[in-house]
Amino acid sequence: MKHSDTDVIIAGGGLAGATLALALAKVAPALRVAVVEAFPLSTDALPDAYQPSYDARSTALAWGSRLIFEELGLWQRISEHATPIQHIHVSDRGRFGATRLNASEFQQQALGYVVDNRWMGLCLMRELLATNIQWLAPAEVTDMASSEQGVSVAVKIGSETSTLKAKCLIVADGGRSGLREKLGFQTNHHGYDQNALIANVSTSDSHEFTAFERFTDAGPMALLPHGSPSRAGHQSVLVWTLNDRELEEVLGMSESDKCQRLQERFGWRLGRFTRIGECNHYPLTLTTVDEPVRPGVALVGNAAHALHPVAGQGFNLALRGLMTLVEQFRLAVEQGRSPGDFQILRCYHELHKPDWQQTVQFSDSLIRIFGHSLAPIAAARDAGLVGLDLLPGAKRLFARKAMGTAGRRAVINGPATSDKQ
Prior knowledge:
single chain, about 425 residues, FAD/NAD(P)-binding domain, nine-stranded mixed beta sheet, six-stranded mixed beta sheet, about 30% strand, globular
């Protein structure tokens, strides 16, 4: 394939890119969409019996993300292996401050869910197989040039590089690929001098579908319920922030010593830690792009903003942004305009901007506030946690942010609307 034509090219077929492709197939089927991805679209996408690995990586989905997947007709399948978060417990280690959220207080089945990334990917692949989405794999986008008709995208397939002409390029391959920088987008980076260690752990006590957000003098940590969607079990997903020295120490420990160190940091709210699985880790950096759109190209997901995982907001923020972009593309089709029209992409950016700014501020402020050990600041945040637990109005706002329902936009059944839950 030396030259070809399509409307939208999505660089990256991971969770963000595949979700965008599926949403476009359902909302704007007149658009021709091609996904450029390193892994092929398998005809064996969804096995008859799925058995998640103990070491499987997972994502926390907010309630608002469930609503998005329902609109895409995907939630029924995803929910087969989605562990509900029915309670959230936020505490400050060694101090009295704490707040609790319960799904029943807000007439919800759950505040969110924990889902294996592989299972979500398989569900997306199966749905995509039933669409007209073109899947180019294994392949990668290596460059792009603007033209009068839109963009000319260099796609490397094996040892050959082809040119694919399109009206719009969407960069959805994460924040580490280098394509964003190669295309000249300016990024802002703020390092936290911390690393996230991710692992699955087992405890002697059942999680009872509770997510724990624990702030310690060494950094925040979270334990999210994992396993059966209907029976509370003993497995949780650990997100543990460590500085470079602590990370090196922990990685060099035996499993029993890792459990002991984790016990010291987290405490006994889930009883004794009995097992810790394979440990993945990465440095924590807040990355934003002030202008993630230009004529014919837009950044989405982690390519546009990468957050600290403390509040589990990253993928949920990305999903809301994808739906905002899909709605603008739907309107472009209705109006006979190109999806790469700068005004279309600019409108997407302006609509999504308040959401990502507020979410970045929310996540970043948690780190800054709980990162101080000075007595007056610690006392003030403890009072804030207690007040949050006692004041219904403040607690409702906090819950809406945690559930990802504030400002959510529905696009499947017509014009975008705000979710008023």
